[in-house]
Amino acid sequence: MSPHHPSRHTPHSSSGSQPVRKQTDSPSKHAGRAPHRPRKTRQGWQRVSGWYDSLVGNTGSIFHRNVAIPIVSELLSVTNGERVLDLGCGQGALFSALKSKPVEYVGVDASSALITAARNRHPSGTFIRADVGRLPRSGIVDHSFDAVVFLFSIQDMPDLAKAIATAAQASKPDAKLVVFMTHPAFRIPRQSGWEFDQGRKLYYRRIDSYMSELSIPLRPHFRTKQPLTRSFHRPVGIYISELVRHGFHIDRFKEIPYHAPKNEKNSAMKRAEAEIPHFLALRARYRPIGDRS
Ligand SMILES: C[S@@+](CC[C@H](N)C(=O)[O-])C[C@H]1O[C@@H](n2cnc3c(N)ncnc32)[C@H](O)[C@@H]1O
Predict the structure, then answer these.
(1) Which site among 16, 75, 107, 121 is 20 to 30 Å from 179 CA-CA?
(2) Residue 184, domain CATH
(3) What is the 3-state secondary structure (H, E, C) of the chain?
(4) Residue 219 belongs to domain spanning
């Protein structure tokens, strides 16, 4: 998830016979081919950690509570004694959802401020400060986890191959990998937005760029002038190719709309929100290369 927690774009209709540009993730003059800037990204998350911690709180933001946590929990379907590794755990929203279950949870995040917040909020959890590309041998034993999760974090990680290689290295054979993210085909920060077609009275998604991998600077909220973190856009096929390359077999794939609130009066917007997915979730099983029975 970007620090712009995936928000609902409120439409404003306008007149004219041509499709009219609506509230948008405005096209960026900053977005460019994805350079790898892990250090800067970590610093970014350090700087927005206070804001992010208060947004997510103890039990998660509205997007965690209403959509992400229920779906991740369903895909994980943990059983007694399972070990769960949460990569890019932030201040531990997933831990809150799992703490009543008989599982052993380990959260990893590159931001020391968010790891401190996680430890303060959830003293019974295990939280390790590390880059996903360089997990400490002391805390994480190879092939010892039954499940690995990226909850709103994989799009914030500059090196996808390393992140997935780490997930593979941590996974036991047949372990579950669960990824929950903002849908890369329809919600590309600064490169997509709602528009309204006056003739057909329809909202539709405008996509300016999809195939190019992008490193997109983000501001945590509209009061902040400077971009502080980055989101890394990749087409869906890149995620799938990397998973397959590292021995993961996808067995669940969900595209999830963000349903407009019940009091939404605009029927065109209601339809658009229901038809165009906001999130993508998938589950894969780890079958080590050479063990493809
Ligand atoms: C949008 S937050 C999501 C946090 C949490 N999973 C949640 O749902 O609230 C993205 C997180 O990814 C972490 N992150 C980004 N790059 C990372 C990396 N290379 N290694 C470890 N964590 C990273 C950031 O520090 C941040 O906490």
Answers:
(1) 121
(2) 3.40.50.150
(3) CCCCCCCCCCCCCCCCCCCEEEEEECCCCCCEECCCCHHHHHHHHHHCHHHHHHHHCCCCCHHHHHHHHHHHHHHHCCCCCCEEEEECCCCCHHHHHHCCCCCEEEEEECCHHHHHHHHHHCCCCEEEECCCCCCCCCCCCCCCEEEEEEECCHHHCCCHHHHHHHHHHHEEEEEEEEEEEECCCCCCCCCEEEEEECCCCEEEEEECCCCCCEEEEECCCCCCCCCCEEEEECCHHHHHHHHHHCCEEEEEEEEECCCCCCCCCCHHHHHHHHHCCCEEEEEEEECCCCCCC
(4) 41-286
